[in-house]
Amino acid sequence: MYAESDISDNPAMLQITLYFWQMCLLRVGPDKVPASLPILFIVLATYLVVAFVSVNLIRPSLTIAALCSSLAFEVLIEGSLVYGILWLKKTSRRALPTLTSLFATNTIILIFLLVVNLLLINSDADILTLFAKSAFWVIFFWSLAIAGFIFHRSMDISVFQGIALAFTLEVLTIAASQMLVPIQPST
After folding, report:
1. Pairwise CA distance, residues 143 & 30, whole Å
2. Which domain of life does this protein belong to (predicted)?
């Protein structure tokens, strides 16, 4: 039905992308995201591609198998934990929109982090390195605010509880992924 079109030719994709950008700006929540497996899979595939490029850039010594395993475990762990919490809150019908929103906004955040990581890798200037490291922390806290806002809207909890949950899930996901697929620090 759609022959060789890109995102600029598809106003629906542009609207979806802009909606997720509005979510990053904390202006809209996951309320209007459809509970659709195909949309979740498209968003998840996009996230995995961006995450693969990003991690491969900052850790080029990783094997493709270790990188793919790590990303797969992180997605499975995060998805399972989010679904479990939604199920406990008796709002599991919101799982697909919540996960779609989380992976879509994480993709946008990863694109920003990719730029910051490129600055860190390709810079010898101390001031640019300081700027990049500062930007990393701003983006990290922004991502926690976004995830916290998504949890606030989907789980009917306060924004601060959502941010605390987002931070806890981030730590648990990274720790579990590291235990399942140990990644040695790059030298």
Report:
1. 15
2. Bacteria
